[in-house]
Design a protein that fits this description.
It is a single chain. The chain has one domain: Four Helix Bundle (Hemerythrin (Met), subunit A), CATH 1.20.120. By secondary structure, the chain is mainly α. The N and C termini lie far apart (62 Å). Helix 2 packs antiparallel against helix 3 and helix 3 packs antiparallel against helix 4. 71% of the residues lie in helices and 0% in strands. It has four helices and no strands.
């Protein structure tokens, strides 16, 4: 049995289910698509255009939320607010580009396994980004409110 790989920043132990589920999904689709990805007849989006730009935006968003986390731990509220604003703005830009990507996609959800896989995976990911943006907005409001309360407490 594998010894626990738990660190102070892990909330749960590593799980074999994500890789098991991915391999199971691959095994069930091989017969349907004939072992060719993307399936013949599907014109795919160029990965060097919007997908690459969205990857850069998400990496920047991750850096911004990490900046916010470290600023909060260091007690630097103003920097934390700036970082949260940057995170939310990047999430909104990502969501806009993802909407544009959906609109311009040359395939639909019902075209093939490729279309359904693409829209399912990117849809869940887009939903995650929207939730992150809403969480960032809530955190910013809480941070601003705590700054206001602190200022009111120090004012005679």
């Amino acid at each position: 049995m594998i010894e626990s790989q738990r660190h102070s920043f892990h909330l749960v132990d590593p799980s074999p289910w994500p890789i098991s589920g991915s391999l199971g999904a691959l095994a069930t689709t091989v017969g349907e698509i004939g072992g060719i990805w993307p399936p013949k007849g599907i014109w795919v989006l160029d990965p060097r255009e919007i997908p690459f730009l969205n990857t850069l935006i998400l990496l920047s968003s991750g850096a911004a939320v990490t900046w916010a986390h470290h600023a909060i731990l260091a007690g630097k509220q103003k920097r934390a607010v700036y970082a949260l604003v940057a995170t939310v703005l990047l999430a909104l830009v990502f969501t806009g580009f993802q909407g544009m990507e959906y609109y311009e996609a040359p395939f639909t959800l019902s075209d093939s396994i490729y279309g359904s896989t693409f829209f399912l995976a990117t849809g869940f990911h887009g939903f995650h980004v929207i939730i992150e943006a809403l969480t960032g907005i809530a955190a910013k409001k809480i941070s601003c409110k705590s700054e206001l309360l602190a200022a009111q407490q120090t004012t005679p």
